[in-house]
Design a protein that fits this description.
The complex is a heterodimer of chains A (about 425) and B (about 240).
Chain A (H helix, E strand, L loop, with lengths): L1 H12 L1 H33 L7 E5 L3 H8 L10 E2 H8 L4 E13 L2 E6 L2 H5 L1 E2 L3 E2 L2 E4 L7 E4 L1 H7 L6 E2 L18 E7 L9 E5 H7 L16 H6 L6 E2 L1 E6 L2 H12 L6 E4 L1 H42 L3 H9 L4 H42 L10 H17 L1 H14 L6
Parallel strand pairs in A: 4-11, 8-10
Antiparallel strand pairs in A: 1-13, 1-14, 2-12, 3-4, 3-13, 5-6, 7-10, 8-11, 9-10
Helix pairs in contact in A: 1-12, 2-10, 2-12, 10-12, 10-13, 10-14, 11-14, 12-13, 12-14
Chain B lengths: L1 H6 L6 E11 L6 E11 L3 E5 L6 H9 L6 E6 L2 E2 L5 H11 E4 L11 H6 L6 H7 L5 H11 L16 H13 L5 E5 L7 H17 L3 E6 L10 E4 H4 E5 L4
Parallel strand pairs in B: 3-8, 3-9, 6-7, 7-8
Antiparallel strand pairs in B: 1-2, 1-4, 2-10, 4-5
Helix pairs in contact in B: 7-8
The chains are: A alpha+beta (about 425), B alpha/beta (about 240).
Chain lengths: ~425, ~240
C-alpha cells in the first residue's frame, strides 16, 4: 500500500511525462477496443443480414455460393429452379411460406431482384425485424418498383420516379429494357443489409421485360409493348432461388431433407445461419489481422511507457537511495517501479475505455446511418475484459525492465550520493 | 586516543563494532577495502575525516547494511548484521539508523512533513516511538519547530526550501522515532559558514536528546573539535588497488 502511494506521488511529480504515457496507452486502448467493437458490429450486422428465414433453396450448389447470390447479391447462380419444384416445396406439410426470388438484371450498377409482395411480408433481418416502408408501398401495378435506402440516397429517387432496368449485371449497363419503364412505388427504410442496394420488382414484371429476349442473346428480337405485356400470362417457369419459412423449428430439418433429396430436380436447401457462419470464417481473417495490428499498437504504447520510465531512472537514483536509507527493502524498490507501470497502465486503460465510450456515444448514430453498421454501447464483453486484463499484466511484465534496472542501481549505489 | 575513549565504555555498551572487515566490490574487482576494528559507544559522536576516494562511502554502505563484507562482523546494538538476511538488515536499518546525505536528502514529491514521516513507514518501532506523546505528525511538527522550520513550511513541497532548510529537515527525518545511530555523509558541504554552524548545533542537540550515536564524515577539519572523537579514515581503513587477472 505504501509502495503504491509512493509510486503515485512519484508519478504525480513527473506528471507531464506520466500523462503523455497515459494518453499514449489510452489512445491505443481506444483503438484496440474500438476495433473489437467494429469487429463485433460487422459480424453481427453480417450475420443478421437475414433472419426469420428457415431455409434458402436454390439449384444444387455450395452453401456459401447459394447464400452469396440469394442474400448478398454477389455472383451468379449456376442454374435456376423450376416453378414446379417450388410448388412441391410449397405444398410440403411443414412449410409455412415460400418467397421466390429471381436475379439477373441490374439498374445503374444495383441488382434488380424479382420477387412477390410476400418478400416484404416475410423477409426479416437483425432480430427478426421486418422491412419497413419509408415512403410509398409494395407493388400494386405490374411496373411498380420498390427500392432500397442506399439507392434512393445515391440516385435521389422519390415516389413516382421513372426508371429503366438493364439486362445483365455488368458494371456497365447492358441493353436497356427501355420499352417498359418502371415507376418507384415504394422506398424501404435503411436496414444495413444488401436490401438497401436492391431494386425490387415483381416476378411478373421481370417476366414481362424479357418477352422476346433469348437468354443467350443480349439483343432483343421480339419486344412487346408494356400494354401488350399486361394482357399476357406472366407466371415464370423458373426462379433463381427461394426463401422458405417452416411452421415449426422441428420442420426445418425435415423440409431440408425433403428438398435436398428432391428427385425431379437437384436442389439445395441451406440453413442461413450455418451458411453465414461458413462465410464468416472466410472473411473473418481480415478482422483477425485488424485485431493483431491494434494489439501491436497497444504493445508499442507499453514500450513507450517503459522507455519513459527508463529515461527518468538515472535522475531518480537519489530518490531510490533515500528510500533504501530509510529502510526500504530492495524488493520495495522493485515493486515501486512495477507499481508505477501498473498505475500508468490502469489509468491508460480506464481513460482509453472512457474515451471510446464517449466517442461511440457521439458517433454511433452517424455510423449506423451511413454504414448500416450497428455498434453496441454495452458493458465491456468478457473477451474485452480479459484482453484488458492481459494488457494490464503485459504492462506489469514489461515494467520489470525498469524495475530490475532500479533494483540493480539501488544495490550498486549503496549509500553514495548519485546525482 | 581511541583507546582512552574506548576505556570509558563498557564492552556491552558498544553501539557499533566493526571487526576484521574485508570487502571488494565484485569478484574480480581491483578495489579492496579492509578495516581492522572500529567501535562506537552509545551516544558517542565521532568525526570521520576522509578525502574522496578513501573508501568512506563504502564504509558507510557497509555500516548501513546496503552492502555486505566478504569477511568480518558488523554489530549494531549487539546484532551482527552480516549474519542477518537482507530483509532483516533493512528492518534493522529502518529501526535503528538515521541517514543524512550530502545534498538532495528529500523526496521531491513529498511535502516537508511527509519527508520527515518517511522512515516511520518502514519501521514499526520508530512509529511507536514517535507516537509516545501524540500522533507521529505532531511529533514531526515539534521536531521541525526545534529545527527552525516554521509551521507555514511544513506542508510545502521541499523544492520551496533553501538548502540549509532542506538539510535541517533531513536531520528531522533521521532523528524521528529515536534511532540509535545517525550517519551523516558530508552533510554540511553545501552549506555556507553560518548555516553550517547552525546545522551542527541542531544536529548535536537532537542526537543528544535521543541519546543517538553519530558518525559524521567530512573532509572539513574545522568541524572536528566538537566531537567526542576524531578519526582519520585513512588510519583505520586500508584500501588497495590490485591488478585484475
Amino acid at each position: 500500500m505504501t509502495t503504491l502511494i509512493l509510486a503515485w506521488r512519484s508519478l504525480a511529480s513527473r506528471r507531464t511525462t506520466a500523462l503523455l504515457s497515459i494518453i499514449a496507452i489510452a489512445v491505443s486502448i481506444s483503438l484496440f477496443v474500438g476495433v473489437e467493437r467494429i469487429r463485433i458490429g460487422t459480424k453481427s450486422s453480417f450475420t443478421s443480414t437475414i433472419s426469420g428465414t428457415d431455409l434458402i433453396v436454390g439449384a444444387r450448389a455450395g452453401n456459401v455460393q447459394l447464400l452469396l447470390y440469394s442474400v448478398f447479391r454477389i455472383g451468379n447462380p449456376t442454374s435456376n429452379i423450376s416453378m414446379n419444384s417450388l410448388d412441391a416445396v410449397k405444398t410440403h406439410a411443414d412449410v409455412a411460406w415460400v418467397v421466390p426470388i429471381s436475379l439477373g438484371d441490374s439498374h445503374r450498377g444495383y441488382r434488380v431482384m424479382g420477387t412477390t409482395n410476400d418478400y416484404f411480408k416475410y423477409y426479416r433481418y437483425r432480430n427478426k425485424q421486418p422491412l419497413k416502408f419509408k415512403h410509398g408501398q409494395e407493388f400494386d401495378d405490374l411496373f411498380d418498383v420498390v427500392v432500397g435506402a442506399e439507392i434512393v440516397e445515391k440516385l435521389g429517387y422519390e415516389i413516382g420516379t421513372q426508371i429503366v432496368v438493364s439486362h445483365g449485371i455488368g458494371a456497365i449497363d447492358g441493353a436497356a429494357h427501355d420499352n417498359m419503364p418502371f415507376r418507384v412505388s415504394g422506398i424501404l427504410q435503411r436496414t444495413g443489409t444488401p436490401v438497401d442496394r436492391t431494386v425490387h420488382i415483381s416476378l411478373e414484371a421481370l417476366e414481362a421485360i424479357h418477352i422476346g429476349w433469348d437468354s443467350n442473346n443480349p439483343i432483343p428480337i421480339n419486344e412487346v409493348s408494356a400494354d401488350l405485356a399486361r394482357t399476357l400470362d406472366l407466371k415464370p417457369d423458373s426462379v433463381t432461388a427461394a426463401l422458405v419459412g417452416t411452421k415449426s423449428r422441428f420442420g426445418i430439418f425435415k423440409t431440408q431433407r425433403f428438398i435436398n433429396q428432391f428427385k425431379p430436380e437437384p436442389l439445395t436447401a441451406v440453413l442461413p445461419g450455418v451458411a453465414l457462419q461458413e462465410l464468416w470464417t472466410i472473411i473473418g481473417v481480415v478482422e483477425t489481422a485488424l485485431s493483431a495490428v491494434s494489439a501491436m499498437v497497444v504493445l508499442t504504447a507499453l514500450l513507450g511507457m517503459v522507455t519513459m520510465t527508463l529515461s527518468t531512472l538515472n535522475e531518480r537514483r537519489q530518490e531510490l537511495a533515500i528510500l533504501r536509507s530509510v529502510g526500504a527493502h530492495k524488493t520495495t524498490i522493485f515493486l515501486l517501479l512495477i507499481s508505477e507501470a501498473a498505475l500508468l497502465s490502469v489509468s491508460g486503460i480506464l481513460l482509453g475505455v472512457g474515451l471510446l465510450y464517449g466517442l461511440l456515444f457521439f458517433i454511433h448514430p452517424w455510423i449506423e446511418q451511413s454504414y448500416g453498421l450497428y455498434l453496441m454501447i454495452s458493458r465491456p464483453s468478457l473477451y474485452e475484459l480479459k484482453s484488458l486484463c492481459a494488457i494490464f499484466l503485459t504492462a506489469c511484465a514489461v515494467g520489470v525492465i525498469p524495475a530490475f534496472r532500479a533494483y540493480r542501481h539501488s544495490l550498486a549505489d549503496g549509500m553514495s550520493v548519485q546525482r | 586516543m581511541s583507546e582512552i575513549k574506548l576505556a570509558q565504555h563498557d564492552q556491552s555498551s558498544f553501539l557499533l563494532t566493526l571487526e576484521k572487515i574485508q570487502f571488494c566490490w565484485s569478484k574480480n574487482a581491483s578495489f579492496i577495502l579492509s578495516l581492522d576494528s572500529l567501535r562506537l559507544g552509545v551516544g558517542e559522536k565521532v568525526f570521520l575525516e576522509g578525502p574522496s576516494g578513501s573508501g568512506k562511502s563504502t564504509l558507510l554502505s557497509l555500516i548501513c547494511g546496503i552492502i555486505r563484507p566478504d569477511r568480518g562482523s558488523i554489530c549494531i546494538d549487539g546484532v551482527d548484521i552480516v549474519k542477518l538476511g537482507a530483509g532483516q538488515v533493512d528492518r534493522l536499518r529502518a529501526d535503528k539508523l538515521g541517514v543524512i546525505f550530502q545534498q538532495f536528502n528529500l523526496l521531491p514529491y513529498g511535502s516537508v512533513i511527509q519527508n520527515v514521516l518517511l522512515p516511520l513507514q518502514f519501521s514499526e518501532r520508530r512509529r511507536k516511538q514517535a507516537s509516545v506523546s501524540g500522533t507521529p505528525k505532531e511529533e514531526a511538527r515539534r521536531l521541525l519547530q526545534r529545527l527552525g522550520i516554521s509551521t507555514d513550511l511544513h506542508e510545502q513541497k521541499v523544492a520551496q526550501l533553501s538548502i540549509g532548510q532542506q538539510q535541517r529537515v533531513a536531520v528531522g527525518r533521521a532523528i524521528i522515532g529515536d534511532p540509535q545511530l545517525v550517519i551523516a555523509d558530508e552533510p554540511t558541504s553545501a552549506l555556507d559558514h553560518d548555516s553550517r554552524d547552525q546545522f551542527l548545533t541542531l544536529l548535536f542537540e537532537e542526537t543528544a536528546r535521543v541519546n543517538a550515536g553519530l558518525i559524521l564524515v567530512s573532509h572539513d577539519r574545522s568541524l572536528a573539535s566538537d566531537f567526542d572523537r576524531q578519526l582519520d579514515i585513512r588510519e583505520i581503513v586500508r584500501t588497495s588497488v590490485i591488478g585484475t587477472q
